[in-house]
Every structure is written in C-alpha cells, then in structure tokens.
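Inputs:
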Amino acid sequence: MRALFNAVKTGFTEIWAHKTRSVLSFLAIAAGSVVFIDAFSAIFATYERIEKQKEVSGMARLKISQNYSQTYSSPDDYVPPPVITYEDVLRLREKLPGFYMVSPEGRDWRNVLEYGEHRVTTSVMGVTPEWTKRDFIYKLRGRFLDWHDVENKLRVCVLVKKAAPPPGNSFNKSMMKKYNFTGGFDTLVAHNDLLGKTVSIDGFTFTVIGILEELPYSRRPETMTGYSQEYKVLAPVTTLIHYNFIGSYQTLDVSIDTGSEQNFEESLRKINNFLKIRFGDGDFFIVENQLELIRERIAASMKSALVTISLGMLAFLAGGIGIMNVTLATVFARTREIGVRRAIGASRRDIMLQFIVEAVMLGLIGGVLGSALGYLWGVPVKVMLGMGGSPIKAWMPLVSVLIAAFTAFVFAIYPAWVAAGLKPADALRAE
Amino acid sequence: MSISCFELTKVYDGGKAGWPALRGLSFEIKMGEFVAVTGPSGCGKSTLLNIIGLLDEPTGGRYALNGRDVLTLSDRERSDTRRDEIGFIFQSFHLLNRLSSVENVGLPLMYAGADGAERKERAVALLRKVGLHGKEKKIPLELSGGERQRVAIARALANSPKLILADEPTGNLDSASSKEIMQLLVDLNAEGITVIMVTHDKELAARAGRNIRMRDGRIEQ
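Outputs:
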C-alpha cells in the first residue's frame, strides 16, 4: 500500500516534470474517451429507442390485407375477390380471444373536410377502440372512439394534430417548407381548436370528440411496423361503412398482435385456417409476418450500434498505443535512474509498479479530460450544430475513465516489463 | 560482513566468443576490512564490484555473503539484500536530479517501507553526519561535486549497511574534495563498516588496510 502511494507520488513528479509529453498522452487517451462516450450514448439511445419501439409496436405483429397480385388467365375469368367485412373481423375476434389486438382498418382518401369557411382535403380511416392498443404514439385530448360509437355507427371523429417539425438546421427547414404536401388540414387543426365542434366530411356532419396530438419529434418513438401514418381523421369503421366511405367491394385490413412471440407460428396457422374456411383456397389475402420485420430492424440497429462501439474501441487502442510509446520512451530515457533505484534496493516489482502506476495515472487523467470533452461535444456542441444532444448518463464518463485507465494499464505492462527486466549493472552504465 | 569468492568468472555476451572480464578470482574479505581494488582500466574491477554488490551475476564460480550463497537468491531477496546490507557509492554519484538531497537520501528508506516523516528525520540526520547541514532542500545541480558525493554517501548509509562498495568515489572530484570523501570512508570503516573501494589512485589505495591488485581479470599476487 505504501509502495503504491510512493509510486503515485513519483508518478506525479514525473508527469509534472514532462509536461509536453504528458499533455500529448492525455490528449491521445482523451480522444479515445470522447469517441467512446459518443459511442456509448449512441448505443444507449438506440437501445432505449428499441425498447420503446417494442413497447409501442409489440413484437408478435401481423397484418391481413388484400392480395393485389393475383393473376387471371383471361379477363373473362375475373371475378371480384371476396372482401373481409366488419362481421368477418368480429368472427375472427371471437375465434381467437387470446390475441392482444385485432384491429380492423378501412381507409378512404381525398375526403373533403369543411369547417366554417375552411375547406381542406383529408383522408379518413375507420377503426375500432382496438386500434389504440398498438402504435398509439399520441397525446389525446377529449376522448377516443369507444365501442358505443362503433356499435351505433355514430358520426363522431378524432382528428390528428401534427407536431411541429423536428428542430433542425436551416437546410432541413427549407426542405420541409418545399415538400410539405399535407397542406391545409394540418394548418386548420393547428390553428383552430376543433374539439367539440362539428365538421363536415364529404357532406356528412361529424362531431369532433377528440384530438390526437402528435408527440414532439424527440419524444416520439417510431413504430416498427413501417406504415406511414397517412390518416388525418379517425372515425368508427362501422360508420364509414354505413355512410359508404368504404364501399362494399373494399376489404378491411386487419392489424393483429397475437400477444406472444412463443405461439406466433401457431397463431399464424390459425389465422390462415380461418381465412381458408371463410374464403376458400384462393390466395385472396396476404398475411404479412411483421415479427420477422421487427426482428430484422432490431438486428440492424444493434449492428450499427456495434460498429459505433468498435470505433470507440479503436480510438482507445490508438490512445493505448500512444501511452505504450510514451512509457517505452520514458523507460529508455530513465534507464540510468532505473539502475540507481535497483542499486539502492528497488525490486523488479517496485520498478514495474512505478511505470504501470505512472501510465495508469496518464490514463486516468486523460480519461477524466476526455469525459469532460466528451460531455462538451455530446451536449452543447452537438446541439449547436443541430445534431441533437446525446443522452449522456452519469455512468458513461465513469465507465469511460475506467476503460481509459484499464487501457493504459494493459499497454503499460510491456514497457514496465522491459524496465523491470533491465539488469542493474547494465542500466547503471546507460548514458 | 564477510565475503568469500571462489573461482569467479564473468564472460560478457557479444560476438561469438564473448569477452571474459573475470577469469577465475578467489579471495576472502573479513568483517571490518577496508579493501582497495586497484588495477588498469578494463581489468575487471568494476565487474567484480558489481558482482559483489549483487548488481550483476557471475558466469561461473561461487560467492557467499556472510556465509550465505547469494547466487541462488530470488530477485526479491537480492534486492532486499542490496537495500539492507549494502551501500553503493559511484564515481558519477548517480543521484536523481529531480529530487532534493533529503529525498535522494530517503529513497532507500522508501523501498524499505519507512513513512515520510521517518524518512525525513533519518535523512536529515545522515546529511548532518556527512557535513551537509543546511543543504537538505538543494537538488544535486545546486551542489558541488564533493557535496553531491556526500549526499550519495548519506544515501548509501540510509539503511545502516554493513558493507559499502565504492566505485572510483573520487574519480570526478578535485584533490581537496577527494581527501574529504576518503576521510569519510575511513571514518565509516572505523565504525565497523566493511568498505571495498575500486580506485586508480595509488595514494588513496595506500590508505586502505589491504590492497587487491587486478590485471586481465585475475588477481595479481
């Protein structure tokens, strides 16, 4: 313990005595530290995002939709394909009560919404309360559609209010301005509080019972099912069918969460069975397995995270080699001193300890410096550059400093071993 | 402190044949002796001193310090022996230039595990003993050659060794300083410390109790 204390003291003296050399070593290891903290926070952000995405999207997802790629040998063979009706969805729900979500979705496009003098284009989607169980990334004002609305085909609707565009640089902003096609509807909802008001959609009056406010970009987890959210107005699916927004020839998409990854294959089979019994052998529908898609996306995110961390590792490697170089140079510059110390009683272990402690101190100080720089880079600088701050947790600089010290330790072993291996008599003869 | 060597040889690596520095030395030195080792340059005086001081290992032969075969000791044991039983004095002083006199003298105590206050107290006392009272804070570059060698002697005495090995201790000093250093060594010998001194200086050698003359790696009889 006393030997360690003495080594630390000697280390300080040496580091102080060779300021330029020490500062360069600090910088080498600090650069590694900065990259590593950046990598850490990037990985942490990815991980948190994935967890949030999983929570929002669910894993065991699949989707039934019309198969549009059916071929017919001649136009005369064409028969209109069967459609999934609301009753089919109810029946499916009844057959498979264990599923977490069975959500019918019927879409209509280019609807005209009128409010006072405003007249804007919008798109309506018919859903049931099931819809809120997944991919619900909004803040709700008022209330959402309930089963009472659906069963009674009430003319009520919920409007989607877009969030402000993400904080970005001027380039981003100009692009947003140029290519924003959503036009009037977003502006109308943004500037008028329509909650409780009556609007007209394609000539039918609807009461606005709720506003779905999009979360600001930074707090919005992306869904992993990969569908663009092109709906602006949500209404009971039954109402839209009743008022012919969704024609009788139009099939309903069904978004399903089977609730568990374990029984996913079996659930898939059950659904295919249901479709077969209901609609016969034709490939009228596609059951899209979204579990695989979600897994692929997670794997891709993880891969990019690994690339980042390996960059951080490489940076530390470079820093470590810098420390090894400096320590070796120190050993050669101080060979005579090593001889003197050996002559007056220092053992090999004492010499080894001295050089390792000195290197670890370089690493520690460099790591602390790098953590400070890493924080500066990750928060104020990145924000200034419009890149969005990194989420830096308290443990990241701590781990980074430890890794810096450990790297220095590992890379000092060889030079220290060289120093300890010098024969006292030879070392004393050195110039 | 007795030293007994038998048929010591030392061959330095280098080239195919190697270069023999010692070619079979046998001698005994008894406790309390003052021995001067003399001889021309390259005759193996320093090599012999390094081997006696456990700074180097002989290629062959036997060497016992106080009746203990020291050639089979581990590095740790050899280091401890150097620290506790042997004090070195070198021609070019070999002080650490960044450390003050007190810190230089305290170094062997540090390796012996003494704490800071203990080291300082002992070092100040030793510096006073070698006549350097008031120069405790000076670094080597602020001292004259004779003063530096006194610091080195104080350092050699730090752990109260029974054997002092001096390799040309006056080689870099003027004659006045040489005399003072020599007097110090004689005084130490009077206190019972065995002194082995390598020197060119016949006058100094004459003050030693016994002379060992060397030539070409052998003792001249």
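Remarks. The CA atoms of residues 278 and 318 of chain A lie 65 Å apart. Chain A touches chain B through 23 residues (CB under 8 Å).
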